[in-house]
Amino acid sequence: MPTNLPPEYFGAEKRFKEAATSQEKITALEDLISTVPKHKGTDKLRADLRKKLSQLREEALRKKKSGKGDLYTIEKQGAAQIALAGFPNSGKSSLLKTLTNANPVIADYPMSTVSPLSGMMPFEDIQFQIVDLPPIGNESTDGWVSGILRIADILMLVIDLSEDPVTQADLLLGQLSEWKIPLLKKGEHRDDEKGFPSKPVILVGNKFDLSGAEDGVKAVQQKYQSIFPVIGISTKNKQGIEELRHALFESSGIIRVYSKEPSKEPDLDTPFTLPAGSSVIRLAELIHKDFVRNLKYACRWGSAKFAGQRVQKDYVLHDRDVVEFHVR
Question: pLDDT tens across 285-328, in order?
């Protein structure tokens, strides 16, 4: 056991040993990993913990597929998984219904959402998975809610503009900090060192149709716009919804790339989605392993200097590029 482990480590280790469900174990282990300092003395410990975390996630996924999984595990679908978080009556369920094909329970009373519910949000030629969760601040659900937030690709924090929106933003971000969920700020790069990446965050001010809501959005923007995107929307009159869709795509950090066979038209209906900065060889790996082994070169349309430009396997792709592979 390496020395100089902080007291938080032993508390997190105790919670991990006491965890009962798969999701509780995953959440506790993620917390445990986040407490381990980075130095040579902890390299093996961190590697062992990350390996254990990977095994737990694979086990939970197998149970889910066999019908024996945790009720509160949401299998990822689409180009990215976006989790909704907020306080009671902030309008999360209404936003889910506005963005997707889901039909959540929408009511004026708090806590109408008691279990995770997902729907697919179309954006141009791809889809994102939106997951609605119970409100933040309920001890009976916060354990597994934090677990889903930790593994989601993007966090969408929904704020009621009629109820002191700046304080709501402060409290929501503070709770994520307490849960040790790393957040990706503007200008930063994702950090996978601790076994799970930093999360892009979008602050969504709902009920923009109400009187005084514009001032609320401006107040949140004044404090947080330099750190996270802040968007005012109304699920009632659909104001700001298209802007939100585009913001979610920008926050996803993905690009869409299309493939074509030599002398044939490209397939523009089903793009491949890749992390921004991916190269031609990364796309080849997705299509077929033989492409990687036998690739001579590729031709690229879209962001290339000219149509059909020949590029090498390490060439970095851009959104909406079309790639034609030439193999031996």
Answer: 888 777 788 888 899 998 655 578 899 889 999 999 999 988 87
The gap from C-alpha 33 to its chain's centroid, in whole angstroms, comes to 19
Among 308, 312, 313, 261, which residue's Cα sits nearest to residue 285?
313
Cα Rg for the chain, rounded, in angstroms?
22
Give the residue among 220, 219, 241, 238 at the shortest CA–CA distance from 229.
Answer: 220
Q: How far apart are CA 143 and CA 147, in angstroms?
A: 7
Helix (H) or strand (E) holding 217: helix 213-224
For 14, the token pair is 């105790």
If you write DSSP's letter for every residue of 6-54 in order, what string do you get? Answer: -HHHHHHHHHHHH--SHHHHHHHHHHHHHHS--SGGGHHHHHHHHHHHH
3 state SS of 254:
strand
